[in-house]
């Protein structure tokens, strides 16, 4: 008996070995795409935030807007609204809504009716009406809408019938349609909201999202992944992939490793210095497009001595932007002279007034009577499209400022803590930036530097100028493009004079992907969209 | 025997209470309001605030607060995660099995390869074999695990593209957690790709498990070798040889069981460093276990997660060391004799 057992042992081992060998063979992987994203979304409702990470994970995947913006034709295209008309005085926007659009369902909710005017009224009503039962469900407010003063712009949303709706504006606003086409202006389900409100759990609406988009939210595990599945009842062209997984990988090196080992097929925000590594791998490629974004260094203008424009001028003159472009961006960006990037239609080439000039900086500091200046720079802990490495940028600025005798401490927190602490405004200066949500030039000014942006805590400079606000208001009411362009140049000039922030760079939009993924369009603005991303079946090589 | 058992159990409780009190006082020093650090609710409503104060006895003295804290934590109320607003206990129970899976797999690798190598090292007449095995163990013992992990990942993952270096499984496989052990869950799954998923999970565990196995592997070799050398000089082995039993049988039946007792003890002593190595390995290979969860919690200032992570890891170490101690005593005839003599 025992002899037999001893003979079995090597056999068993052989079995195990052969099993391990087969384990290396072809795997039957379900069809889908894994996207290495850079962080946890804060919520699943893009109305509530401005962070690009959350936008990527929600807006274009789960939801639709009333209208979309087509970058190629530079025009608006129908989405949940099939048609729209603007009244002659520019104060009424009449939308005809799409019929037969079904909302998604989940464990908490299955829709009993199709999308209609009530959903539009709910989605925008919760933002503009402070007495709305959902208004205060958002603890973070509605930062984008607050920054463009949406609540005071829209006086009333009138329901004509189930599929027709009119927005009544308080004043003319040339950027209104652009703002409705942004990633933030999504349409939620009113029925779901009312059901959850009755159940006493209204916050579920923003977490277990229900939208009309090409994918529905299947599962979210914090720090690990978000799983989306194709929405089979999608009203538009169905998504080409069955499943979309966001693999949450905070470290850029880890994302690179994952795409090399094919754990991901698409990866967010590669660092510029990783491009040389990427070139060595044949199955990887980088898509680039000039981006509508700007990286800047914002001063907290409410804190002395940064409330003195001369000090801010001095600091602006002390920064060597070209050095930052070389070291941080590796030539994947251009130096910014103003807020607007060259990709914007309102851009016009101007000389950088606050160019690199350490001597001038020293002189201005002396003039302002500031000596032994020391303050903090907050550097974002995450890679954003406009700045692939804020830490490094902060270090370069630190050494530039050391040359003019200014001491700088670099401060950083984890992203979610960082954004929360920014709101409490207890900082001296911060390295951050802005990725446009739409192509309207207003998007670079009003959400960032207006007085209403200050109220919504999106104004990182904590700076409010009536002069700038009046120029911006005028530009919004003007419908002619050349006139608007002139007004935005005027706005740039005011910012140059007051230096609430130092513009650093406009980065290219980079997307790292496997060659067997077909991505037809990369938007220069806003978040990722996976609805027309295709998986090309690997062809057999001869 | 029972007296010994009771004494060990006492030790477990006392150590745990000391451990919890350290965490309790550390929690009091978090730079936030105490109710927030304990419950994880950052903006409590009036009812939630009242509930927190009542649960943790916040208006009472420190001792009563501590008693309330222990009661809450031991009854499973670990608060909610600051970051995800989900129950910390749920999150913990989702990440613990992944850590167990990795440690068990690594432990098995260490024993399956370490014990035979240790035996060979002890029996081999050839000095070269002995020395090279010892050299390997010494090298393995002194290599820092973070360096080893990164090197393996770079070589086998990035350069050769043989093995995945991150996570537990390709995320396109959708596996419902039953046991929490990915290798078992993939086999239990009823999806058409279950076998593929199992293979994928197996490929994913190789690199982290090998990295984590290096420390126990080297320790097992050294201890086994030493113990075997001692055992083989004992008179009962010579008696067995005299009876004409073959060497293999003597090894397996008579020598090895006795030699493995010190190996067990070494495992008990190694638990602390094994756990910290485990945390490092989880971070390097993004293994979704309790270590990665804890480190992420620390980065995100997730106070409730930090407490729960430290509490669970340290309680586990205390519990397992005492268990190993007990098992060691139970199966070790020498200890048994001493106990009976008592």
Secondary structure tally, helices of chain A: 19
Q: What is the overall number of helices of chain B? A: 14
* Largest interface between protein chains, with number of residues from each side: A-B, 35 and 38 residues
Mean pLDDT of chain B, to the nearest integer, reads: 86
Poorly predicted ranges of chain A: 1-8, 538-542
Beta fraction of chain A: 15-25%
Which labels suit this protein?
heterodimer; A: 542 residues; 20 strands; disordered N terminus; B: 342 residues; mainly alpha; MetI-like fold; 14 helices
Provide structural commentary.
The complex is a heterodimer of chains A (542) and B (342). With 542 residues, chain A is α+β, with helices and mostly antiparallel strands. Chain A is 33% helix and 21% strand. Chain A is built from 19 helices and 20 strands. In chain A, strands 1, 8, 9, 10, 11, 12, 13, 14, 15, 16, 17 and 18 form a twelve-stranded mixed β-sheet that branches. Chain A has a four-stranded antiparallel β-sheet with strand order 4-5-7-6. In chain A, helix 11 packs antiparallel against helix 13, helix 12 (321-329) runs antiparallel to helix 14 and helix 18 runs antiparallel to helix 19 (481-498). The longest helix of chain A is centred in the N-terminal third of the chain and has 22 residues, at 2-23. Chain A is globular and about 70 Å long. Chain B is built from 14 helices and no strands. Chain B has helices spanning 2-28, 34-39, 46-55, 62-74, 88-123, 127-142, 145-159, 182-188, 194-232, 235-242, 247-284, 290-299, 303-331, 333-341. Chain B is globular. The longest helix of chain B is centred in the middle third of the chain and has 39 residues, at 194-232. Chain B has one domain (88-341): MetI-like (MetI-like fold, Orthogonal Bundle). By secondary structure, chain B is mostly helical. At the A-B interface, strand 10 and helix 9 of A face helix 7, helix 9 and helix 12 of B.
């Amino acid at each position: 008996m025992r002899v037999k057992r001893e003979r079995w042992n090597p056999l068993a081992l052989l079995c195990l070995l052969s099993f391990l060998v087969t384990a290396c063979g072809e795997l039957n992987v379900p069809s889908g795409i894994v996207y290495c994203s850079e962080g946890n979304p804060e919520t699943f409702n893009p109305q509530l935030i401005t962070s690009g990470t959350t936008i990527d994970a929600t807006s274009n995947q789960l939801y639709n807007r009333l209208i979309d913006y087509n970058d190629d034709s530079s025009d608006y295209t129908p989405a949940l609204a099939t048609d729209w008309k603007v009244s002659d005085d520019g104060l009424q926007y009449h939308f005809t809504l799409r019929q037969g659009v079904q909302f998604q369902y989940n464990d908490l909710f299955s829709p009993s009716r199709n999308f209609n005017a009530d959903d539009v009224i709910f989605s925008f009503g919760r933002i503009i009406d402070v007495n709305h039962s959902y208004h205060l469900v958002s603890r973070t407010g509605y930062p984008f809408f607050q920054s463009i003063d949406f609540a005071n712009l829209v006086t009333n949303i009138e329901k004509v019938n189930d599929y027709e709706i009119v927005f009544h504006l308080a004043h003319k606003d040339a950027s209104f349609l652009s703002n409705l086409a942004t990633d933030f202006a999504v349409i939620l389900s009113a029925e779901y909201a009312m059901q959850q409100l009755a159940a006493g759990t209204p916050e579920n609406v923003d977490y277990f999202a229900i939208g009309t988009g090409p994918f529905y939210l299947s599962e979210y595990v914090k720090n690990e992944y978000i799983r989306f599945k194709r929405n089979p009842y999608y009203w538009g062209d169905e998504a080409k992939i069955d499943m979309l997984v966001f693999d949450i990988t905070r470290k850029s090196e880890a994302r690179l490793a994952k795409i090399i080992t094919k754990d991901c097929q698409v990866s967010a925000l590669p660092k510029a210095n990783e491009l040389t590594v990427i070139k060595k791998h044949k199955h990887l490629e980088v898509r680039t497009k000039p981006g509508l974004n700007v990286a800047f260094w914002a001063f907290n203008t409410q804190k002395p001595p940064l409330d003195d424009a001369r000090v801010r001028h001095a600091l602006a003159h002390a920064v060597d932007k070209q050095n930052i472009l070389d070291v941080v961006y590796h030539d994947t960006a251009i130096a910014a002279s103003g807020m607007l990037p060259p990709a914007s239609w309102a851009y016009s080439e101007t000389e950088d007034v606050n160019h690199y000039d350490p001597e001038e900086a020293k002189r201005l500091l002396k003039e302002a009577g500031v000596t032994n200046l020391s303050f903090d720079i907050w550097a974002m802990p995450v890679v954003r499209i406009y700045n692939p490495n804020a830490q490094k940028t902060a270090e370069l600025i630190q050494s530039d400022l050391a040359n003019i005798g200014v001491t700088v401490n670099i401060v950083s927190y984890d992203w979610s803590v960082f954004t929360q602490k920014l709101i409490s405004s207890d900082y001296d200066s911060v390295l951050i930036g802005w990725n446009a949500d739409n192509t309207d030039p207003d998007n670079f000014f009003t959400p960032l530097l207006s007085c209403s942006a200050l109220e919504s805590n999106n104004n990182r400079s904590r700076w409010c100028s009536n002069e700038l606000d009046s120029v911006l208001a005028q530009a919004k009411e003007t419908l002619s493009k050349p006139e608007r362009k002139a007004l935005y140049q005027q706005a740039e000039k005011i910012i140059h004079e007051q230096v609430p922030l130092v513009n650093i760079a406009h980065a290219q939009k980079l997307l790292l992907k496997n060659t067997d993924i077909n991505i037809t369009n990369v938007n220069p603005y806003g978040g990722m969209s996976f609805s027309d991303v295709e998986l090309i079946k690997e062809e057999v090589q001869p | 025997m029972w007296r010994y058992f009771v004494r060990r159990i006492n030790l477990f409780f006392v150590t745990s209470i000391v451990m919890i009190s350290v965490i309790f006082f550390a929690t009091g020093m978090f730079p936030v309001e105490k109710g927030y650090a304990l419950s994880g609710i950052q903006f409590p409503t009036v009812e939630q605030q009242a509930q927190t104060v009542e649960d943790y006895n916040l208006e009472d003295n420190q001792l009563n607060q501590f008693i309330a804290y222990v009661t809450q934590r031991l009854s499973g109320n670990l608060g909610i995660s600051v970051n995800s607003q989900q129950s910390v206990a749920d999150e913990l129970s989702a990440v613990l099995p992944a850590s167990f899976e990795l440690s068990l797999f690594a432990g098995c690798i260490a024993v399956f390869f370490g014990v035979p190598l240790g035996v060979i090292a002890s029996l081999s007449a050839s000095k070269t074999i002995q020395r090279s095995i010892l050299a390997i163990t010494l090298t393995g013992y002194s290599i820092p695990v973070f360096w080893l992990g990164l090197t393996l990942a770079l070589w086998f993952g990035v350069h050769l593209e043989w093995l995945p270096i991150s996570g537990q499984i390709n995320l396109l496989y959708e596996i419902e957690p039953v046991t929490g052990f990915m290798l078992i869950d993939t086999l239990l799954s009823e999806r058409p790709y279950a076998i593929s998923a199992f293979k994928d999970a197996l490929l994913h565990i190789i690199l982290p498990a090998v990295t984590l196995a290096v420390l126990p592997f080297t320790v097992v070799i050294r201890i086994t070798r030493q113990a075997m050398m001692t055992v083989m000089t004992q008179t009962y082995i010579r008696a067995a040889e005299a009876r004409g039993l073959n060497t293999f049988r003597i090894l397996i039946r008579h020598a090895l069981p006795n030699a493995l007792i010190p190996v067990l003890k070494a495992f008990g002593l190694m638990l602390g460093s094994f756990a910290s190595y485990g945390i490092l390995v989880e971070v390097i290979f993004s293994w979704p276990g309790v270590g990665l969860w804890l480190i992420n919690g620390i980065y995100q200032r997730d106070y409730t997660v930090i407490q729960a992570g430290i509490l669970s890891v340290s309680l586990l170490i205390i519990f397992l060391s005492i268990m190993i101690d007990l098992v060691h005593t139970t199966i070790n005839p020498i200890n048994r004799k001493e106990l009976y003599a008592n």
